C-alpha cells in the first residue's frame, strides 16, 4: 500500500492550489514560532501577555483583515482566509478569535458599513496591527436576541451620547477602537468608538475556564459623547451586525477543524507510543475504531469548509449554509477532542498535551457567533420557510 498522510487520509490537500498551500504553510510556520511554544502557559495563566506583539507579527504576514480589499488589507480569497483560520485555531481558539474579531468583525464592519473617513482613519492601522479593534454586540441579558439590546445612543445637538454595557468582548481591554451597536430612535445603529473616549472602560472578565489565552472584557459606556460622524452612515437594524457575524462564523467553520486536527494528531501520536498489555494501544481494535471515526469526521468537516469557501469566493454562499457549517464542524470538533481525551487517558487532562485546552475552548466556540439552537433554527427556517424564532 502507498503510504498516506494520517492527518489527510482522503487527500483533501490535493484540492488546494499551490498559492493556497503557501498561505496555509506560512501561517503554520508563524504559529509554530510565535504561539505554540507558549500557548499552554498563557492558557494556564489565563492571559495573553504578548497580544500587541502577536498582532504586529500577524499584521506583517497580512493576516489582519486579509480577506478585505483596499486600505492596506491583503485582499485574499475566502479559502485563503479559511486556511489561515484553521492553522490559527490549531494553535488555539483564542488566537484565531484575536484575528477573527479584528478582521471579520471590527474591520469588516468598518469596511462594509463605515464612511470613507472611518475607513481611512482605522483600517490601515488595523491591518498592520498598530491598532486593535473589538466588537460590542452581546449584552449581559441579550445574547441570541440582539434586537432587544439595552445599550442606547441618543442625540445631543449634533453629538451622540452612548450608555450601556456589552459582555464577552474579545480584545476589549487592549482595543484602540470599538465597533458598538446601540438602539436609537432610528433603530439599531453602529458606532466607531475610540477607547480613549471619556466614559468608556473595558474591565477584564475573570474566572474563565475556556478561551483562557484570550483577553475578554466587558465594555462599559457611561455617557460616552461622540461626534455625529462616529455613526455608520447608512446601515440600520440588525442587518448591520448580523452581516459581520456571518463573516466570523465562516472563519469558525474552518477554525474548528484546526482544533480538531491538533487533538487528533496528539491522540494518534500518543496511541503509537503508549504501551499497555505489551504493545502500543494503537494496535487495539477499539483504539483504531476511535481513530478511524475521528479521521472520517475531520475529513468531512474540512471538505464542508472548503466547499463553503469555494462558494463564498464565487459569491454564492448563503447565511444558512454557513450556519450549517458552524453547527456541524464545531460539534464534530468537540466530539473529536473528547474522543482524543479518552485515548490519552489521564494525560488527556494535562496541559502537556493540547487536547483538554482545545476541548474547553470549543465549549465557548460552540456558543459564540450563534448558539447551536440559533443555527438549527436558521437552517430550519431555510428548509421549511417557517420562522420558529418567534
Describe this structure in words.
It is built from 11 helices and 9 strands. It has 390 residues and is an alpha+beta fold. The chain has 3 domains: 12-128, Acyl-CoA dehydrogenase/oxidase, N-terminal domain (Butyryl-Coa Dehydrogenase, subunit A, domain 1, Orthogonal Bundle); 133-237, Butyryl-CoA Dehydrogenase, subunit A, domain 2 (Beta Barrel); 240-384, Butyryl-CoA Dehydrogenase, subunit A, domain 3. It has a 4-stranded antiparallel β-sheet with strand order 2-3-7-6, with helices on one face. Helix 1 packs parallel to helix 4, helix 8 (285-313) runs antiparallel to helix 9 and helix 9 packs across helix 11. The longest helix has 35 residues, at 239-273. The mean pLDDT is 96.
Short description:
The protein has about 400 residues and is α+β, with helices and mostly antiparallel strands. It has eleven helices and nine strands. One of its GO terms (molecular function) is fatty-acyl-CoA binding.
Could you give me the name of the CATH homologous superfamily of the largest domain? Butyryl-CoA Dehydrogenase, subunit A, domain 3
Mean pLDDT metric: 96
CATH architecture of the largest domain: Up-down Bundle
Compute the CA-based radius of gyration: 21 Å
